[in-house]
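The record is passed on directly below:
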Amino acid sequence: MSLEQSFRDRTFVVDDPDARIRSDDDLMAFVAIPGGGFKKIAKGTSVRVLDVRLEEAGSKKRIVFGRAAAADGGDVLGWTSTRNLAGSFMNETIGLVPPEPGATRFGPNAAWDNGAFLEQLDLVAIVDSNLEIERLAMKTIAPFAALVAAAKDDGVRITLNSGFRSYPEQKLLHDGFVRGLPGFNTAAKPGFSKHQNGIAFDLSVAGGDGNPTYEWLKRHATSFGFVRTVSKEPWHWEFDEAKAQAARAGGAFRTPNVRD
């Protein structure tokens, strides 16, 4: 399995009756059919994704486009939005994001913990639950994929809301929280968030107790090295095998400091 580009190992099914093919030169433009209409990939078609491209779609959101080919080894069908595929590409890794040459401790790959710079991380871009692009530390991709696959086998879907954050990203969230700006929630000071050291995952669990994904995580996450570590945040889980093992040994799914 390709950890950096998981889509290369999978077959997808077109799930949209209006899965239009995009122009190779301009992915925001559709390929027209002479006489009217647009070229489409029929709903129910099994495809492989040969390559991906990201395009800005306003408000800093991105659309992931995939170059699709018939899964049976047939013709290349063309570029289409991955939102047209069953699952919409959620949890698919789409590429390695290595540290930039000469990157500083405040750069996009710089890991921090407890106010101290740790190292530059290899990150991997991944599609989150909002079909936006998050980044995860390369060292956590395999265990996260194993967690997702095990849940899927049990009919439960685990998706990501937030992963690694750079120092500037954390500063933006913290400043918004301190100023009480709309849409900003509790956020640690830059340099102190677990999202900055490459082990923290915010997962989609709605209100927590009673949510099927959360209940599954409570029973099984520690077996994969994941453990809840923050009070009042049922969505926040960390990949920490030692803490997960200790919690599991005590019949728990969270660290002792977590009260609710």
Notes: The radius of gyration is 20 Å. The helical segments are 138-153, 167-178, 212-220, 241-249. The chain has a mean pLDDT of 95. The longest helix spans residues 138-153.
